[in-house]
DNA sequence: TGGTAACCTGACCAAACGGTCAAGAAGTTT
DNA sequence: AAACTTCTTGACCGTTTGGTCAGGTTACCA
């Protein structure tokens, strides 16, 4: 398939290592998502990667080390995928963009989101530092942007922290709790790609209205066909 | 402390059983919340309950059986705590009440929420039936209520299913991902009781605005004190 | 007061766990 | 093709796991 992402695809010294580490981490991500850290077994990860267990331990000495690598990979992935939000941006455009990108991550990388969710549920023992430093810095830098928008009358007054909490909650629920949404919608196990489009649109509408940026959705204001 | 909840507190035949089962289930809820099903150990549950491991197995033959009991208890708790939503209700009142009750559950029973979240993340292997039957029936009965409100022009048009998904997401994030919110707000490990009040108010505002039921929060419409 | 049912628990077990290791296979460099 | 590094893996080890059980203690009822 598309094994060739970039940089040093063919030979080169660390070729085999690079390939196998990626294979193991991909398998580990799925197993950690399904079972959590303590519930995941190295044997299950090895089997999913199609390798003997001892080989997994050759590349990652301990389960903790592998888990850390998976977590770091997820944080890197998210950082790369999400554009920033600055005071110069148009609120409607910037937040719509942000929400759509987050839902797209829920669709394309649900396992990553579930590993992260698993960690948060347990009190984030291995992410405390990240949450209290990088993430907090990120949001502390974004809060003045929201406040500036409010002061300029561009959006309705709202608590910036809770705005982000709620956006995160809504965008990630379709990855973390996919099973619940799918069951209620009668989809079976997984949501359809279209469901994510609908989720994205509904979250954008909800947030835009909450900020007083009504988009006048389908024409008529209230009431519709029954 | 307040061990005496109700019904048959003093003697009666199944007195000891009732007491110990409750004690074990309470301990189990915490351990399952912290570690997930596979990660939780019967030894840890026993220790938390202050009983020998063998005693736990006297009341609950297997870990699965205990887990099921905890899950059933949670569903019962939620059913009891949440009032219904009917077409006769005023949308603003009914949904405000619903949101506030859900956030109150996140504050008072965070472990229950986290056990449930853990189960959903793993694909809900033991809750599929509940999700596809009871929960789906509940929401399928509520969707016409929302649609009626829309048709009557009482609220702005919105997808009823995704409205509930988003409300669930926002109200539960403060229990399930408490560690994230607390870290970002600089609260340490846990949110303060006031944080939940704020969360509740912000979610209500967000949903009300999304439904065109602006509550005119603090007086001024836009812009505020700098 | 005696009998019966419910409750308690230390000691134990097979299976599964994370992790190690030595010995060999494959790849690379000179 | 020799010398060396990297990779591979079956077999193994100490520990932890969910669960059992026999034999005891306590509570209840006649």
UniProtKB/TrEMBL annotation, chains A, B:
Entries under Pfam families matching the protein: TetR_C_3, TetR_N
SUPFAM superfamilies found in the cross-reference section: Homeodomain-like, Tetracyclin repressor-like, C-terminal domain
UniProt DNA-binding residue ranges: 41-60
InterPro entries per the UniProt record, alphabetical: Homeodomain-like_sf, HTH-type_TetR-like_transc_reg, HTH_TetR, Tet_transcr_reg_TetR-rel_C_sf, Tscrpt_reg_YcdC_C
Name of the protein in its database record: HTH-type transcriptional regulator RutR
Presence of the UniProt keyword Mitochondrion in the record: no
Organism the protein comes from: Oceanibacterium hippocampi
Keywords assigned: DNA-binding
HTH tetR-type domain span: 18-78
Molecular function terms, GO-annotated: DNA-binding transcription factor activity; transcription cis-regulatory region binding
GO biological process terms held by the UniProt record: negative regulation of DNA-templated transcription
